[in-house]
């Protein structure tokens, strides 16, 4: 909390304009304690606590936008749950927090000073830099690109579903894990090298082709999450940097594999060039 100002930041509203309040460095991490050593099924109780933490709301005006919960399963087995609001963190932030917490914990156990290099900037510095950098000319150029890229884009992906699509869409989703066997991965890498692309582009093109066949649509919109940490000063900084550049893939005319890979590769490269414009989902 002392190290990262964003973790002790709250959001207020003045009229219609939001603004941030950075709390004092002495603000600590709220930490609840749960002892489930006597529970009939400690793991089931833990799963319930994890679900409750994930669904519990934050008060962005009161804060803090991070909270912790220490669950005692047995005498020497504990689980620490940390929940951060996405207004102050992203996937990379979770990794940074984990690394720094591990270092602080190890240093405390061994009695040595923690080895964390000072941060050159805070998230507010980045936000100010971004606002100053996105001048009218740059903003117009980036907006023009995305307007042109998304022109005529479909608003709905018509994939077959088990239930009727609700009138109001729910942003919640899920994950499906799968593993590629080594021979398939080797073939995909070779295919990528043959057409001068990356494995990411090849898989993305295959995903677009699958969605096109499932939906019967020739034009598709696919979001490509980007870490958006393009400056060295912010690589170790916790904050909501992630952006979601959007690609439009056109499969009309039944393109060849080479043509499709070239189209997707070009779209990915240009999306990275124009990734600085915050895109609202």
List the topology elements.
Layout: E1 9-14, E2 17-22, E3 31-35, H1 42-55, E4 66-74, E5 77-84, H2 91-110, H3 123-133, H4 136-149, H5 182-195, H6 199-215, E6 219-223, E7 246-250, H7 257-273
Parallel strand pairs: 3-4
Antiparallel strand pairs: 1-2, 4-5, 6-7
Helix pairs in contact: 5-6, 6-7
Summarize the structure.
This protein has 281 residues and is an alpha+beta fold. Helices cover 38% and strands 16% of the residues.
What does the model show?
With 281 residues, the chain is α+β, with helices and mostly antiparallel strands. It has 2 domains: 5-88, Chloramphenicol Acetyltransferase, CATH 3.30.559.10; 124-273, Nonribosomal peptide synthetase, condensation domain (Chloramphenicol Acetyltransferase, 2-Layer Sandwich). Helix content is 38%, strand content 16%. It has 7 helices and 7 strands, in the order βββαββαααααββα. The strands form 3 sheets. Strands 3-4-5 form a 3-stranded mixed β-sheet, with helices on one face. The protein has a two-stranded antiparallel sheet with strand order 1-2. Strands 6-7 form a two-stranded antiparallel sheet.
